[in-house]
Amino acid sequence: MFDILETKERVLADNEAAAALTRKKMEQFGALLVNLMGSPGAGKTSVLLQLIRLLNADYRIGVMEADVDSDVDAKTVEAAGARVIQLHTAGLCHMDADMTRRGLDALGTDGLDIIFLENIGNLVCPAEFEIGADLRLMLLSVPEGDDKPLKYPLMFSISDVLLFNKIDTLPVFDFDIGLATQRAKALNESIAVFPVSAKTGEGFEPVAALLREKIEQRRIQA
Amino acid sequence: MFDILETKERVLADNEAAAALTRKKMEQFGALLVNLMGSPGAGKTSVLLQLIRLLNADYRIGVMEADVDSDVDAKTVEAAGARVIQLHTAGLCHMDADMTRRGLDALGTDGLDIIFLENIGNLVCPAEFEIGADLRLMLLSVPEGDDKPLKYPLMFSISDVLLFNKIDTLPVFDFDIGLATQRAKALNESIAVFPVSAKTGEGFEPVAALLREKIEQRRIQA
Prior knowledge:
7-stranded parallel beta sheet, alpha/beta, 7 strands, homodimer
């Protein structure tokens, strides 16, 4: 086990250096980079479509769609009005900082105010690989269960924003939002929590408001 | 990217060699090893409890509960009557063949007829790392969506059995079982598909029958 862990530490250190470069680059561009993470089927693409709907009139939006090897989501997101690039991880379970940097170069950051990376559906690996994002936004959907902070603690620890998605299905699942919030906050006191439904659109106004605030801050910095 | 891919191939080759050893060992013991995989919240533990309920009277069951670092599930499964060991992957997103072998040694295979490994909740990494299982059983839950075979094809390609779980929630989700089956079969013609609900217990009899058949076959081989 020891050798494996040492290899991993080296990989993570290299990754952190690459992420720092991206962070600096985004500051220069005056654009905000958001790392969107969650399980398969948690609703990442649908959440993205809701956020594009609310931000599209005022901001220019870029999206990097990371997939193991499909392009199901990229077409939908492009139709919603964002500048889109499809990234294939060729079997890898996460995006790393270097792949993200290449993605940003290929997408072209010029003129964009906010760029979302829709990460691979996974609660483990993406939590370990910093991509140089300004904001880490994770989804936990109601059908997944309110025990997930206990099982995948790192993801909740490193995220800035947590959306409880699919709240329209609360009547059919034993999901306690209070308990889930308490478990997430025990890991990460400052995590901002929003219950939403990407199906009905409920709850997205305050999430969009938070993003607007961050975009404006970044513009002033640049 | 090239270096990364070469490293990965080496890791996978070493893993395959370790998996082959486990496979031989299980044949000698006369026990069946099942690799249980699925997304976070797909219902792996609840499915396991249903299968234990149906098999417990006739067979001695062992369970290896792999978790990133919790032991939420191990207690529940032990209470259901299985011999249980908790495995911590220390942040890794999958179990590999070597970790599985250590787990089997620690659990003690003597006297057991069937051993389940509940893998880390993830549709990517566990598909790449063979553990030496006799049967790969994956879950796709209705709330995750019927497009998942398109997005995580490897998992569907390498699985022997696919359970569509949470069918009690079909009325609230746009999930087409026919379409999902067709997409899974396009990747893997011989995959056996069963719609189930671990909440209500519906649909588990044929799954248990399949496992009984495999256990009996293994006993004859040993």
